Amino acid sequence: MTELPVPHLPLQQPSRAQRRSRADRWRRDAVEIAAVFLAVATADLVADVVVHGHDGPVLLVSSAFALVATAVFHSWWEHRHPHGPPGPEPTAADRPVEQPAEQAPALPPAETTLWRLRATVSDAPGSLATVCTALAELRVSIISLQTHPLPEATVDEFLLRAPRDLPRAMLAGAVARAGGREIWTDPADAHDLVDLPAHVLALATRTALDAAELPVALRKLFGQCTIRQFPATGGQSSAPSLDGHLMRLPMPSGELVELSRPHLPFTPTEFARAKALVELDAVLGPRVPQVAARLSLPAGTDLTVRRADPSDKAEALAMHRRCSTGTLRLRYHGPVADADRYLDHLLDPRHGQTLAVQSADGRIVALAHLMWDDDSAELAVLVEDGWQRRGLGLDLLRRMAALAAEAGVSTVYAVTQAANTALIAAMRRLAIPLDYQMEDGTLVITAHLAGAVEQLPSPWPAVPGR
Fold first, then answer.
1. Which helix (H) or strand (E) holds 328?
2. Of 239, 416, 447, 452, which is least packed with CB atoms within 10 Å of its CB?
3. Residue 426 belongs to what domain range?
């Protein structure tokens, strides 16, 4: 076994500071010893004077009077000059222990309400702080803040929690006096209490899974806005554009998506978000989630309800051939010869959601369409003649209403004729508040979904895909 040599490290020499500290310590010890010797010698001298001197008692009495006089003078001086330098702050252990007093009853929290507020402020240091100070003076809490930079200003969007008794005009006036302009306010609710990046990612995920979610995602991203889709034309521009209250975004198919919001202009930041969602939809292409559910009829027939896509066009056309002229006319409200032309639009997932009811032999016997229309959605159902009056129409209407409620749509409507008693009866059986409007022989039935979500069954009760 080889023995490794141990290196000899040089001894570390004391530094100059260490040598100086050691010398100071020796001098201090020498002074202390000398002081002790001096005190002993002084005490011995005083003892000799008192014991052996003739004036020893007089000296002791005089010293006592001098000490008393000194104490009296010190007390008088402290009374005349009480303001000395502050002493050290007492610690928690030095403070006297106080007896717990009876606590006053806690005041109930003030009732508050949520507001969304947007204002344009100058791009200068302290401008945002001035607005925040004005809000704080009104006891308004800032829950979240988004900034939208502009070339010469900044658009700040707040989510606020304000006292319920604070008027909207006072809130906007305080922001205006703090330098805000183009102020917009709108009541908010608990759905706005969400982290913006998480909200955008959730919308992008829904769009990635289902092409029909793109208009819904855009509406949830920008609030109340109008979304229109225009067919491809040779003369329209293919470049995205932003013009204040109007935003145009081309689709890969050549169609044009137009977003308008008259009450509030779009910012470049919002334009970039919308453009990113549309580009994501373009990259992924047409897609429909593979979801399905079993539907058992009273007669013992089992059917499958699933999402339809453009690949179902041939089966849908075959169902049209089996339907009577009256059935097609009640569904499409126009010439029966044009019914086939509507299928390309209805089966495109970017325009809405379509459900197909499929029999055991693979034939489509019913179709239901949910088409987005601004803040609402249109319902339409077509059931083959041989499968009518078996509950298919009601089941499809319930599923469509549930899908609309999940998408955040507050109202759905069906356009039909007064003679379509089957559809009218099915709409009534939804147990949802309905409005009826008759125009030129056309009946529009509007169902209000707000507050009725719990009454609607799940559209897909946990059945694997087709």
1. helix 325-332
2. 239
3. 292-455
